[in-house]
């Protein structure tokens, strides 16, 4: 297929940075991507359906980002505007969809946000636009589900408009790898669509990884996250066995990690959280049923990881029993509500499930997290964070290290805490007041 005039126009506007970039969904994926294109000199229009978020972004032309243990207030260097008016999508040369893909009540994929975004922009599509999907989803979504919602008379995909899939690989809080440094998998519905994907992302990242089809790219993202979920499930199961055998699993992992080949270190914790690892594997298990297959290995890892918060609650009960105390009525402080350290994301966080389990068994519960000032548990109970200072730590019957933010003073915690339930390996297992969980 020869490049069309629309593709040539798009490529030229991307090359000279005159293209206007539309980002649909201004969350953990969309906002950093919007900033990256703004950093390159592109005008950016951000689309969202949350009026409060739109107002806040327009008020200060920026957003807050967590980088390691630091926070940075980001200001867009090129023109940026947030809006809920999808008619503005006609002004954009590129529309990048970065919306959530949650699971339904029965662990079935919910691609409603993707389809809604496609329907909102469809009336405003014009020749020379590229529509890119970055949301994690099952193989076939781009071509079988989203593409029909974009179809318009007079616009030919691959000639007039270009539809691509390029999975996000955002890692909030990662100081080493940002959008530019992470290789970008790109794919297109047609050969010209793939060229449009290269034009869109080529200036934003150091390395492009073109693949043969959108289905390959969709499966690639799922494999990446399933790889993590399965290995985390494995090491969490190993943790429970090692505990029964009186072996420190963190010592085992550190020793195994010295092997220079054939081993990758994964670390246990209170479970898995965030927008990817607890959700994405089930996209593939759902799709596999269409082909008459049952992905037992993936589902087993999910079962193990979902069990871990209950395991932490049980270990906390055992630790308090060893101190001749019952969990019911004991003061228990959970350190860390976010699903990983040094960020504020509590989506699917196992820390919340640990809190809910402790509260259900009568604990006098509190939590500390410098990134999460308040939260609500599943039963509607609202909690406000306390400061993890010496007096607060000393007043607890047990402190549970659920998310090991760098901001916590671990030397002080070791000194002041009566009992530490450590799910992250921050304290020596030989310490008499430490219970590994």
Description of the structure:
- By secondary structure, the chain is of the alpha/beta class.
- It folds into 2 domains: 5-212, Rossmann fold (3-Layer(aba) Sandwich); 228-436, NAD(P)-binding Rossmann-like Domain (Rossmann fold, 3-Layer(aba) Sandwich), CATH 3.40.50.720.
- The chain is built from 13 helices and 17 strands.
- The protein has helices spanning 5-15, 30-39, 51-60, 112-121, 141-150, 191-201, 214-244, 249-256, 280-290, 296-322, 350-360, 390-394, 410-416, and strands spanning 21-24, 44-47, 62-67, 70-75, 80-83, 94-97, 130-133, 162-165, 184-188, 208-210, 331-335, 364-368, 374-376, 382-384, 398-401, 420-422, 434-436.
- The strands form 4 sheets. An 8-stranded mixed β-sheet has the order 5-2-1-6-7-8-9-10, with helices on both faces.
- α1 runs parallel beside α6, α4 (112-121) runs parallel beside α5 (141-150) and α10 crosses α11.
- The N and C termini lie far apart (58 Å).
- The mean pLDDT is 93.
